Amino acid sequence: MSLLIKNGTIVTASNEFVGDVYVKGEKIEAIGIDLNMPADQVIDATGKYVFPGGVDEHVHYGSFGALLFETSHAAGVGGTTTIVDFAPQDQGVPLLEAIRIQASKANNVASVDYAFHGIIMDPKDSVFDEIEHLPEVGVSSLKLFMAYKGTSFYSDDESILKAMMKAKDVGVTMMVHAENADIINVLQKYYLDQGKTDPVYHYYSRPPIAEEEATNRAIALAKVADCPLFIVHVSVKGAMEAIRSAYEGGFPVYGETCTHYLTLTTDYLAKPNFEGAKYVCSPPLRPQEHLDALWEAVQKGWLVSVGSDHCALVGGYEITKKKGLGNFAKIPNGCPGVQDRMVMLWTYGVCEGKITRQRFVDLFATTPARVVGLYPQKGQIAVGSDADIVIFDPNFKGTITNAESYHGIDYSPFEGFPIKGRPEQVFLRGKLIAKEGKFVAEKGKGRRLTCKPYALCYTYYHKDDK
Fold this sequence. Notes:
By secondary structure, the protein is an alpha/beta fold. The protein is built from 13 helices and 17 strands. The chain has 2 domains: 2-51 and 380-394 and 416-439, Urease, subunit C, domain 1, CATH 2.30.40.10; 52-378, Metal-dependent hydrolases (TIM Barrel, Alpha-Beta Barrel), CATH 3.20.20.140. The protein has helices at 73-77, 95-106, 125-130, 157-167, 181-193, 201-204, 208-225, 237-248, 259-263, 288-300, 316-324, 341-350, 357-372; strands at residues 2-11, 16-24, 27-32, 41-44, 49-52, 54-59, 80-87, 113-119, 141-145, 173-177, 229-231, 253-258, 305-307, 389-399, 418-428, 431-435, 438-439. The N and C termini lie far apart (45 Å).
């Protein structure tokens, strides 16, 4: 099968021009002006933008009580054609086996292409010894949590440092969730003892300093290990500034933020009648001053990507109320966001003049692909790359509603948000999977991808120099 997209405004992370894209099979075969080769399908994209399919390097399918890959077609509808999931590790299960188990859950179920990060949840020497084998199974990144003390997700500084020292030798990108677990534990008890149980106290028990301190500590550990570092879901100005300072000082520290940290404030957690529970995620939503700082950071490159941190909790709002009513510390964490990432970033970034179209593509597709070692196969419109293409209609106007969402639960954190523009047609490896907000392909046709080590965070480091 062949496809010719004509007269669209092709936008990459570094360029923008009106032209044509020719697809043969699953790959982009030609890009130019007035291409006239025969094609099975010709699409006139006049007045539309042509973007690479989005790469969301931060999703949760199955961990934290989230739905599995049966709802991953939500990503495709929203213009994301590649997701990178975190594979949780149960106690006693080897790290590589945990990844194999998670991959088996996606096989013939995921509707977009997918890859994995490892997570260490059983920190012991045998697990650290497995890190060198991650690239052999197509995994080039590894995450540890500094938060959630008292659960299997938590890792202490010793475990993080050991993992970093192993990861740097094989080009595995180290990722951390940076929040000070002890501050959180003390403040949770403090507020609960005062009878302050509403969802907004999720924010007060996880103040900005808890994230800022942990970010600085993670950077210090990375410097000890001489290991590049990627800080996930940055939500506060101080953490962003710590990342910026380390990078500008010559050390390879990078960070992402997420759609909700750019568009939702702490006020949503304070909604009455327990409605604020729908907005509980960690780190928590922040006051406006932090949103303003994060927009500046993504515009200037101090933060390099915008993920969704998608986590559609099984049972949705009903299970959230059942578990968390009367105790904010027990509210399940997670917001479904994979479908709305593109339109929210476009509407509240590009349309409001906070980022350019090229920066939008970089944040949404190109740099996420580079971070996880999938570039240039994914994340760009270029000859030889996978034909993951979004034809985007900038003239569409609408409103986000859960009724039109595919994430599989009963609420959306972006309910009622006006949007400008949407993916009109989405192609995965040359095949149409979504059109005008609807999934139109056969489900379960996503393909597992192999991530390459020594990815973006190793910019300052080269294997031959070791």
